[in-house]
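Dear support,

We are seeing what looks like truncated structure output for some complexes. This example has two components. We would appreciate it if you could run it in full and send us the complete token output so we can diff it against ours.
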Amino acid sequence: MAALVEDTAKNAHVGRKNKKKPVKRYWEKTEELKNSEQNTADGSTSTENTADRSTENTGDRSTENTGSVKRRKGGQIPYGKEDPFPGEAPIPQEQLQKYQRGSKHNVPKGAQRKLKEAIAWSEKVSELAQKQAARYDLLLPEDAGFLEGDEDEDTCRISQEDIADAVDITSGSKYFNLNLSQFGPYRLDYSRTGRHLLLSGKRGHVACIEWQSKNLTCEINVMETVNDIKWLHTEAMFAVAQKKWLYIYDSEGIELHCVKKFNDVLKMEFLPYHFILATASATGFLQYLDVSVGKEIAAICTKSGRLDVMSQNPYNAVIHLGHSNGTVSLWSPNQKEPLVKMLCHRGAVRSLTVDKTGTYMVTSGLDRKLKVYDIRAFKPLHSYFLPAGASCLSLSQKGLLSAATGDVVQVYQNVWGASPVSKPYMAHRVRGQVWGLAYCPFEDVLGVGHGEGFTSMIVPGAGEPNFDALDTNPYRSAKQRQEWEVKALLEKVQPELIGLDPGQLGKVDQASFEQRHKERVDILGYDPLAKEKFKPRSKKKGRSSAGAVEKRKRKVAYEDQRDVIRQNVKELMKLQKEKSSERQQLEKSSTLDRFRKQDK
Amino acid sequence: MRIEGVKVTSEMAVSDEKEFAMDNEVISASEDEEFSDDERKHNKLLQAISSLGGKRRKNQNERSEASLQVSEFFVSAEGAGDKVGLSDLLGTVEKTTGATKTKKQLRNLQNRKETLELPLNKEQAEKIQRSVAYEKTTKEVTDWQSIIVQNQKAEQMVFPLNQEPSGPKRVEQVVAGWKAETPLEQEVFRLLHMNRQPVHDPVLTPVEEASLKAMSLEEATIRRAELQKARALHSYYEAKAKREKKIKSKKYHRILKKAKRKEFVKQFEERMETDPTGALEELKKMGMSRMTERMSLKHQNSGKWAKSKAIMAKYDDSARKAMQEQLQINKDLTQKIVTISDDEHETPEESETVPDFVNDVEPITDHLNPWMRSRLPQEEPEISCVTPDKPQTSEEEEEERDEEEELLADFQRKRALRQIEDDDLIPTAAEKQKVTCEVSREEVVGEVTVEISDSDENESEEEEEEDVSHFNTLFKLMSSEKTHEGPAPTPDQQEDEEQLDEGQIRVRNMEDLEVLEEVSDPRPGKVAAQSMPQPTASDPLAKKSKREINLSDVLTKEAKTIKVALTPTVVDDEEHEEQISIIKEAFAGDDVISDFLIDKRKQEEAGRPKVVDLTLPGWGEWGGMGVKTSLRKRKRFRKKMAPAPSRQDQKLPDVIISEKRNSSIATHQVSHLPFPFQNPTQFESCIRTPIGQTWNTQTAVKKMTMPKVVTTVGAIIEPLVKEDYIKHKSTKPTGKGPAILLNDRRGAKDGKPSDKNKGRDSHKRRRNKP
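Here is the complete output from our reference environment:
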């Protein structure tokens, strides 16, 4: 865990300490910073508190309030000392901001009472929620570590062996190699909790390992080409994209399903909150499989050839596909055409990855470029040129980017910072061509699948130090896992909600009536508001002859139109009448009228 | 009152009323009997006949008139057409002696012209009754309004409503049979009870509890409004005082002074009538001033200035006048004043300088709710050590007095201070006399206007002021002495003086002034901002009617080469340019960018609304193969649709954003705005915070999902009782005016002391009870 990694960093220093003068430690600085922050926060909040109190005093039961305050002062704190920290503990502004949801809405001026109350209540409650959440932030005490070199030392020169030697044994054991030269380049996938690792060799080798204890849970050879492998929602099941179909195995290696609707799958992504397995096939189909009910949700023909570059956006569960014409397209199961299509490279896209917050996307192409995009604005932030181009990309939870160029894995720090990166944070050479890259969640570990097997390397500061035990608990027991599974299934997000904006559900549908009606007609297959066609009753004695029926139909035909016309005509007549009467009056009145007796 | 008789058609009866009537009476009296007898018989007969018929006939009420002639054709009522006057009926009364009063009344009655109005008919009367009843009931019902609204607004209602308050209770409340047994316990509890202190730590004192019960929300709001008003007035007053203080115009001050002098004279005269002792005081003061004047050489024209003036006096008219003025002042001051001997009223009364607010009536006279009284300092006289429990209570009260009270008090104090200042400018006898003398001289001299040169007046003014201040201090001393002797108002005045001092410090503080100045200062920042040249909005806007994407626009981001630490073994190091050329060669066939642009254009085309062609071939012209429709027709029947809104990707050349609406989510979305909300943003802001446990802490979830109504199982929920919720009108302070009456001095005087005493008495009584 992170604490260990901090240790590693420290230890690394300790090892080289005799060479250099004492440097200001990072924690000292941070502590100072923290202190200053605390102070400022204190200041602001204390003023807030006083303000609060004053407002309270002007409130209803002022006498009571002050009375109680005074008594408190007199009674509870002995020797007449004043409480040096009155009121609630202050919350730093940063933390508050972290948990802010949307902006505050002020009560409109001329609003009705009920509206005012509703808004005031919601504001109050959301403020409370925000404050509480910020307060509970102190339950996340861990900090991410990092690697720091000496003055004239590049961190990328530090070898994995050195790091493994310097850190404690448990952390050191996280650097290891698996020599699997037989079944060709390996792909890998870590489970969401980071405890389990899946390895799949191109030539059919599938292994499932509890990697920290190096405990092999299952190992099979499917006797077929394996294109990709992915954990499903728990460690009990995983999906394997084999030469022809998609298979699902359990952790014992028993084949559970062979999904024949999904053929020629090259890449897979699992959307954990939707329980959806998204697959991209060689035929150009993007398919969605709901693993909770085993139903195919959508099959979209992307019409852009072989799909072997795929990634998911963890923020909004949109699938990103990279194409051979240099474009990246964004897909949701609800739309047959891409939500967004953006031209990223002059050559084909080789790999892409999206960061945890859904803000940044990193792509690499055949034009040997590495590009960082802001996918909220769909604008490129940085473009780097890698001499060999990156074949595999992966982003860690803390935003470290790893890129594989040939047999070298490079890790970059701060790729989307203000200043562009000039050199890698770490680098490591593996024995074969890199085929798969993945960071282990909640660990400072990067797994590399390559031609000669698997390498697990230590990357300080990669993993999120604090985990949400109710969501992904690395230390959960079987019982907890079961409970989590039930809860997760109950809270499953419907695939209809996938879209670019995950907050769309909280917005009012402002489509016009016509549009809504049209959609309804599309769904129902008929127009529920359409007028029924007149069907003449069948009559006897020859009165239902074709001619008679036609006549009857003619009678009611265009009835509504006729009504309108009648109305119009009536109005017209009225107008004309008025006009004519006016004219008549004008005509009637002669010049001699003025000599008439005025009787009115 | 005139009694109107029956109206009869014959007109002849109008003339010669009296004689005729008399005649009629005489004749009819004899004849009437015969006729009536016959008639009776006749009637009887008729009735008998009608009763024979079996059918019942309704008895018609006939009305018979006494008349001269009885015709069988019509009823004539000759003589009855004349109105019977009151005089006819009471003619004899005039002749009788005595009963003059009744006679007078009768005469008055006779002269009155109006007639009594008819009583309203039943419907109308009922309508009025109903409306009155309605008003009454609405009044009754509206009393409930506040509590209903309060309950509606409440976040949570817990039924039954009057539950025992949770929290710690007193020992006696919890344990019934508990007794303080050990002597120590007894001692402790006796002490506590005596001082009305809470026995248990967090429990409220009985007084506090009472206060909690006494104050309803409504009252509190009213009180708050009052306080706000007081605050506002305070600020106005301060501003005004400051403004006035700043005025440098001598003329203004002169006029002001004159006005004040006049006022003072007037008051003095009034006082002479109403409050002779006060006047006596004044006179004494004058006497003092006379004494000092006699002692001093002021106004004797013996000073340097006077001597210089004396030289000038021969030639300069104004100098002479000034000298005369001085002498006149001296004369006036040294003049003996005839004292008014009033020994009846010896009760000590407040004198001039005591601020009027001392005597203000307490606006709220609610004995149940002493906390609603504005707690001005004079209400809590610090009578020292009369009884052992008194000081403590006063302390307690002192504690309870909160900021608002202080503010109010402060305001009052300042006001009072201001008044005193105002008074300070005038009140001495010297000036008063001067005024009177001036007036008298004006009367005497007539045209000769009294004009004093500026410097002259200044000097004299200064001198006068000195005098005045001296007098004031003397007077204060005297009054304090006097009040020491007097029983009740002593502490009041003492305190007043203390407060005065305080007030003076507060007002005269330089800091205060600075603060005020700061407030009044116009904001320099704003001005600066305005004066700053605004950024010209003439940025060259790229106006492109038709946007063509350049190939060079796309993928423009400069690539930065990264030095790779470990060079990959597979790929050789090559030159950058070389690489590009190689890539270009490799992808010579497919121009990625242009393909993309074409794609984008297509999308845009598809999104654009199409022109609808409604031309019918062959109408109005020749039809058939190869015949073109005419231009005119095409123009006429082509309909252009409204242009589509601009695309999201308009400014992003290398991005295509789909404009299709995601209708799948629409089924889950809210499509109609729910009730209280007026626009979508309001509603969206209200649902922006999730309420689930996944996103919130436990307490927040509980708060968010709190039920509106909570009932305890098995408890009977009684309807609201009126007495518990609706206070009597008397308890409320009058909402209209402020509770503090600022200028009403006289009215206050009567009510105040008695009321205060009552309050104190009640306190005492209550204290003695437990």
